Amino acid sequence: MERQKENIKEACLLKLARGWKLKKQRGKGLEAKEGTRKEEKQARQDV
Protein backbone atom coordinates (compact mmCIF):
# COMPACT_ATOMS: atom_id res chain seq x y z
CA MET A 1 0.00 0.00 0.00
CA GLU A 2 2.72 2.48 1.00
CA ARG A 3 4.80 1.65 -2.05
CA GLN A 4 1.81 2.28 -4.31
CA LYS A 5 1.32 5.74 -2.76
CA GLU A 6 4.98 6.57 -3.34
CA ASN A 7 4.74 5.48 -6.97
CA ILE A 8 1.66 7.61 -7.53
CA LYS A 9 3.34 10.62 -5.92
CA GLU A 10 6.43 10.14 -8.07
CA ALA A 11 4.36 9.79 -11.23
CA CYS A 12 2.54 13.02 -10.37
CA LEU A 13 5.79 14.89 -9.83
CA LEU A 14 7.24 13.56 -13.07
CA LYS A 15 4.14 14.65 -14.94
CA LEU A 16 4.36 18.09 -13.32
CA ALA A 17 8.03 18.41 -14.18
CA ARG A 18 7.32 17.53 -17.80
CA GLY A 19 4.43 19.96 -17.98
CA TRP A 20 6.54 22.69 -16.42
CA LYS A 21 9.29 22.17 -18.97
CA LEU A 22 6.79 22.40 -21.82
CA LYS A 23 5.26 25.57 -20.40
CA LYS A 24 8.72 27.04 -19.90
CA GLN A 25 9.62 26.29 -23.53
CA ARG A 26 6.51 28.11 -24.67
CA GLY A 27 7.89 31.14 -22.88
CA LYS A 28 4.93 32.02 -20.69
CA GLY A 29 7.33 32.84 -17.88
CA LEU A 30 5.66 33.89 -14.65
CA GLU A 31 2.24 32.65 -15.64
CA ALA A 32 3.60 29.16 -16.25
CA LYS A 33 5.37 29.08 -12.89
CA GLU A 34 2.20 30.09 -11.06
CA GLY A 35 0.22 27.41 -12.84
CA THR A 36 2.65 24.67 -11.85
CA ARG A 37 2.68 25.80 -8.24
CA LYS A 38 -1.09 25.43 -8.07
CA GLU A 39 -0.95 22.05 -9.82
CA GLU A 40 1.80 20.89 -7.48
CA LYS A 41 -0.25 21.80 -4.40
CA GLN A 42 -3.23 19.95 -5.82
CA ALA A 43 -1.16 16.88 -6.63
CA ARG A 44 0.17 16.80 -3.08
CA GLN A 45 -3.38 17.03 -1.70
CA ASP A 46 -4.63 14.24 -3.97
CA VAL A 47 -1.99 11.77 -2.79
Total tally of structural domains: 1
Q: How is the main sheet built?
A: none
Instruction: For the record, give the distance between the C-alpha atoms at the N and C termini, rounded to a whole number.
Output: 12 Å
The total beta strand count reads: 0
- Provide the structure class: mainly alpha
Counting copies of identical and different chains, the oligomeric state is single chain
N to C succession of SSEs: HH
- β-strand amount: under 5%
- Dominant shape: elongated
Q: Tell me roughly what share of residues is in helical segments.
A: over 70%
Overall pLDDT: 72
User: Compute the gyration radius: what is it?
Assistant: 12 Å
Number of helical stretches of at least 4 residues: 2
Low-pLDDT runs: none
Region (Disordered): 23-47
Biased composition (Basic and acidic residues): 28-47
Secondary structure layout:
Layout: H1 2-26, H2 30-46
Biased composition (Basic and acidic residues): 28-47
Region (Disordered): 23-47
Could you explain the architecture of this structure?
The chain has one domain (1-46). The longest helix is centred in the first third of the chain and has 25 residues, at 2-26. It is mainly α and 47 residues long. The protein has helices at 2-26, 30-46. Residues 28-47 have a biased composition (Basic and acidic residues). Residues 23-47 are annotated as: Disordered.
